[in-house]
Structure formats: structure tokens, C-alpha cells
Design brief:
It is built from 15 helices and 2 strands. It has 399 residues and is mainly α. Strands 1-2 form a two-stranded antiparallel ribbon. It is a multi-pass membrane protein.
Length: 399
């Protein structure tokens, strides 16, 4: 959500909006594929890893679990980086953006990223991470969605006011291609959108706790519509406000200095940043839920359920949280993470794995039309990911 405005800066408004709709549609198709194979076999695989095991054996389930671990761990690191940017500021291309703590209390050791994130992790996140059922997070998840909507309303209102006063930046409707490398750079924005719609690892855990499992399809489609609207609104509003100055994490633009253009009041900027930081704190446990399950599945494939073993549960929870915290301190920028995970593990979870399950069709339930769509999904994912990775490598070594 915070990087969608940056994708509009790279792609232009028109292609970015089209890409959001296209990836949302493919996500809906891929989830429908997974639901179709959930109860097909005699063993009734009630998990994503179980479906991959039925289709490709132990190697398939391990590959799926590795991708979930990489994607979710990357996502949690990104969350902490953004929270750190809100509280303790960030640096980008020589520009310093102060955090709320530094603006209010000055630059001290206790307003720095390491200490502020440590307190956030221990006081706010750890109690939620110790909950053993995903439905225990339903209220915090509902509040997080409400906060996201509030963020959309505030940024959209700011963009409308700035537009009426003639203070908005001029957005590009189409990408600006000056050289061959610019065309390749367009593909580096695609993984960000793919990552934004990668939720497949939570489909089965949530479905298992619904009173009526058939409601999952409707829930997914409603969620995709809501997320698409939120992404489009935030992307357009953020890009209108900041134009080519839009940063990879747009919250860094909402400081009290030049990043906000000087026409956004300090109360509004702090409200925007704190509300979204709280949103991430409340979303963090839901992403960690699937991460913890899949780490346990990799390390202890034949052990009893994780919730029934307090030692394993608390040990894995603590180790994952500690690693995520240390990584967020060491990694300064979220754009590089989105490019990497979106080009590899996220695209596998959201497009490639559902596609190969349909092509494998071990239960013979897919029609020819489904296999053509699955093959198209895989081809599109492989081509765009390969170009994105190539562009990143060229950019890295070219510099």
C-alpha cells in the first residue's frame, strides 16, 4: 500500500491502475483453482502445502513452505522498516526525513530506530503473536482495515484540497521512456503489485475456521475489490501530492519538512503516519501466523500440531520475531525487498504454483479452458519476473 504511489511514478497512472485490476483478477482465479483442489483427493488436503504434496510429492510441499517463509518474513521485515521510518525517520538519496519521535523530542538514543522498534515489538506485537488461533485476531484485523480506510480518506481529501488549490504535482498518465533501461525499469514495479495481492498462504487457515467454508470464495472476492479500491486511491492520491518526489515508502513524504511540500499541517502528517503504523502493528500477527506454521512444517514435518506443543510454539515465535527485528534494523529501504520477493517467492505463491497444480491435474477436475488460463498465468509470471530480476541486476552492477 505504501509503495503503490511509487509504482505509479514508475509506470504512470494508466498502466498502474490497469496492472492493479489485472493482478486482482489473476489472484481471484488462482484462489479458485486452490479451492477446487482442496477437497478433491481422498486425503482431502486442507492446506496449500497439502495440495502441493498431492500434486508434486514432498518436494512440492517443501518448495511451497520455503516460498511462504521467504515471502512472509520479507513482508514482516518491511512492516518493521516502515514503522521505524514513522517513529525514527529515514534517509533516501541524501534526503533526511525525520520521524515523529525525533520531531517531538529531538535526536536521542531512545528516539532512534533500534530502541523505538524494540519497544514496539515487545509491548504491542508480542502479546498478539502469542495467540494460537487465527480467529483470535479477527477484531484486530477489523480495526486494521478500518485504519487503512481512514488513511485512504485522509490522503484522498488532502489530494482533492491540494488539487483545488493548484498545489498538486503533475502526474504522468504513461511511463516516460528515455532509453532502453527505462523500459526494463517498468518491470521492477510489477513485483510490488504482485506482492500486494499475495495472500494465498492465509486462505486455508482462515477457511478452516469459518462456520461455512463455502463463504471463502465470497470473502476473497470482497477482499480483492476492497484492496483494489484502496490501492488505487492511495496510489493516485499519493502521486498527486508528491509527484516525482514520491518515495518508495510514501509515509516518509509525510514529514513536517519539505517532503510534504509545506502545505500539510503537522497534526495531519503525524496522524497519517501514526494511524498507518498502528495498522501495520495489527496486521503483523496475521502474516506471522502463516509464517510460524510453515517454519514449523519445515523443521518438524512429522511432529504434532504446533499449538499443542508450548515449547515449540514459544521458541519459534521468539526466534522469528528476533530475526525480523534485527533484519529491519539492518535493511534501510523497502523497495529492494519488494522487488526481490515479488519477483521470486510471491509470484510463485500467487500465480505459478496454482497454475502448475491445474496443469498437473492429479484428480482430473480441470477443463481445457482452465489449463490454458493456468499456462498463461505461468508464462506471464515467468516472463515478467525474469525481466524484473534482470533489470535489477543490470541496475545494481551498472552503478
Amino acid at each position: 500500500m505504501m509503495s503503490i504511489p511509487a509504482t505509479m511514478k514508475v509506470l504512470g497512472v494508466g498502466p498502474a491502475l490497469c496492472l492493479i485490476v489485472a493482478v486482482a483478477f489473476l489472484s481471484d482465479v488462482s484462489v479458485e483453482f486452490l479451492m477446487r483442489y482442496t477437497e478433491c483427493g481422498p486425503s482431502k488436503s486442507y492446506s496449500y502445502a497439502g495440495i502441493m504434496r498431492e500434486s508434486f510429492g514432498r518436494l512440492g510441499s517443501v518448495g511451497l513452505q520455503v516460498c511462504v517463509v521467504v515471502t512472509n518474513m520479507g513482508g514482516l521485515i518491511v512492516y518493521l522498516i516502515i514503522i521505524g521510518d514513522v517513529l525514527s525517520g529515514s534517509r533516501s538519496e541524501g534526503t533526511v526525513h525525520l520521524g515523529i519521535l525525533q520531531e517531538c523530542f529531538g535526536d536521542h538514543w531512545w528516539t532512534g530506530r533500534a530502541f523505538s522498534l524494540l519497544l514496539t515489538v515487545l509491548i504491542f506485537m508480542l502479546p498478539l503473536l502469542l495467540l494460537k488461533r487465527v480467529d483470535s485476531l479477527r477484531f484486530t484485523s477489523a480495526v486494521s482495515v478500518l485504519l487503512a480506510v481512514i488513511f485512504v480518506v485522509i490522503t484522498s481529501a488532502m489530494a482533492i484540497i491540494a488539487l483545488s488549490e493548484g498545489k498538486t504535482k503533475s502526474p504522468r498518465l504513461l511511463p516516460h521512456l528515455m532509453k532502453q533501461s527505462s523500459a526494463l525499469d517498468l518491470f521492477t514495479a510489477i513485483p510490488v503489485i504482485v506482492t500486494a495481492f499475495t495472500f494465498h498462504f492465509n486462505v486455508h487457515p482462515i477457511r478452516a475456521e469459518l462456520s461455512n467454508s463455502s463463504d471463502m470464495t465470497s470473502a476473497v472476492r470482497l477482499s480483492l475489490i476492497l484492496c483494489s479500491a484502496i490501492y488505487a486511491a492511495v496510489g493516485l492520491a499519493g502521486y498527486l501530492l508528491f509527484g516525482d518526489a514520491t518515495m518508495a515508502d510514501i509515509l516518509s513524504n509525510f514529514d513536517r519538512g519539505g517532503g510534504s511540500g509545506g502545505y500539510i499541517g503537522p497534526f495531519i502528517t503525524d496522524t497519517v503516519r501514526l494511524s498507518y503504523a498502528l495498522h501495520l502493528i495489527l496486521v503483523f500477527p496475521l502474516i506471522n501466523f502463516s509464517l510460524r506454521i510453515n517454519v514449523d512444517g519445515l523443521l518438524f514435518p512429522k511432529a504434532q500440531l504446533l499449538g499443542s506443543s508450548p515449547v515449540r510454539f514459544y521458541s519459534i515465535t521468539g526466534l522469528l520475531l528476533g530475526f525480523t527485528y534485527l533484519a529491519a534494523i539492518a535493511i534501510p529501504n523497502i523497495w529492494a525487498l519488494f522487488q526481490f520477493f515479488g519477483s521470486t517467492s510471491a509470484v510463485c505463491l500467487s500465480l505459478i504454483f496454482p497454475g502448475v497444480i491445474v496443469l498437473r491435474d492429479v484428480h482430473g477436475v480441470s477443463k481445457r479452458r482452465d489449463k490454458i488460463l493456468a499456462a498463461s498465468m505461468i508464462s506471464l509470471a515467468v516472463i515478467t519476473s525474469t525481466i524484473a530480476i534482470t533489470s535489477n541486476v543490470i541496475s545494481l552492477f551498472g552503478k
